[in-house]
Amino acid sequence: MSFLAKQLITRPTITTRTLSAHGIRAYSIPAPAHKNTVNIVEVGPRDGLQNEKGSVIPADVKVELIERLIEAGATSVEAGSFVSPKWVPQMAGTADVLKSINPKHRTNIHLPVLVPNKKGLDDLFKLLDEHPGVTDEIAVFAAATESFSKANLNCSIAESLAKMSEVTRLATERGLRVRGYTSVVVWCPYEGRTNASKVREVTKELLDMGCYEVSLGETVGRGRPHEVLEMLEEVAKAVDPGKLAGHFHDTYGTGVANMLAALNFGLRTFDSSVGGLGGCPYSPGATGNVATEDLLYTLQDSPYHVAGASTTSKSGGIDLEKVSDIGWWISQKLGRESVSRVGRAIKARKSREEALKSKL
After folding, report:
1. What is the spatial distance between Cα 209 and Cα 202, in angstroms, rounded to a whole number?
2. Which of 5, 87, 104, 248 lies most in the core, judged by the most C-beta atoms within 10 Å?
3. Cα–Cα distance for residue pair 144/182, rounded to 1 Å
4. CB 60 within 8 Å of CB 101
5. Domains detected in the chain
6. Is residue 188 among the annotated active site residues?
7. Vertex 200: Cα angle to 303 and 268 (nearest 5)
């Protein structure tokens, strides 16, 4: 076993060391073998598509995207958002998407939908009354800075948490799972560096109101591993890292590095987007989430196993080759190329192989 593999898998105690260049500390959290399963939440159909410009993507394309991701082994796929199409036009028709997904793709699969307010929850409940079982999970969110909260939710952090608390209570009473998001956990497009203590407070409140997990959103995509570790240390003062997930945008090309830092800290769930799709309407310049292909390749043959239901991959999990194909397919539907580095490398490799075959 390599030195890196031993470092990733063997963590007998929590340790710290000072990095003199930045005056910060690096952290190691125990990672017993039975906790080396990594869960991926595929957010491409929601977070990946919500910022697309131009005409609204047809519902049948969204359905095919979701079903293909499930066939590749994904077991948790964000299906859309119950938000006003006035504010996020690409999320129009989420109810139609949920209704149209083939029942065979629902077994042991979670299809969470973002619900930003009581109106959205009422719309979801109406759908569930008419079509029981189309989803079993919602996501709620709050921001770690006042400026982002006002831009995204048109209210203060305190007001947004009060609204989310009601939504969470009603959803759990209905038997739905609730996942939380804390946005702008490292940098804010309006306020600069985010106060990590505020991230801790918001995240703890989301968990206390009933969220089973909170995904920490590095929304701007500007954060670096040492900054992610500083934030995680502060959040871990009040929250078990096992209840946290990582959501890293890749604007500055540090998404995978930040994921690895969070993985080494103790997080075992990460959001990613097929083909690197995405962006945020309220974070100017932010690009997509870390690509699912890039994350899968990074963890391939490592001490960690990606959970999933693939029937074509020898070890189960999520099929990297299929996800790469899906990334190119949806990118072409959107009129561009996949931005996944791994996806581009796989396509180039396949092109070379086909060229060689044609010469035989």
Report:
1. 11
2. 248
3. 6
4. no
5. 37-358 (3.20.20.70)
6. no
7. 15
**Residue 19: strand pairing partners:** 24
Mean pLDDT of 207-236: 97
What are the beta bridge partners of residue 349? none
Q: Please tell me the predicted confidence (pLDDT) of residue 50.
A: 87
Separation between Cα atoms, residue 107 and residue 75, nearest integer Å? 9
Q: Which ranges in the chain belong to alpha helices (H)? A: 3-9, 59-71, 94-100, 118-130, 146-153, 157-173, 196-208, 225-235, 255-265, 292-299, 320-333, 341-359
Instruction: Choose the catalytic residue: 155, 188, 211, 280.
Output: 280
d(CA 199, CA 83): 24
CB 248 within 8 A of CB 290: yes
Instruction: Express each pLDDT in 275-295 by its tens digit.
Output: 999 866 555 555 689 999 999
Distance of CA 188 to the CA centre of its chain: 18
**Amino acid letter, residue 88:** V
This prediction has a pTM of: 0.88
Backbone φ and ψ of 145, nearest 5° = -130, 150
Write the burial class of residue 143 (CB in 10 Å: 0-12 exposed, 13-18 middle, 19+ buried): buried
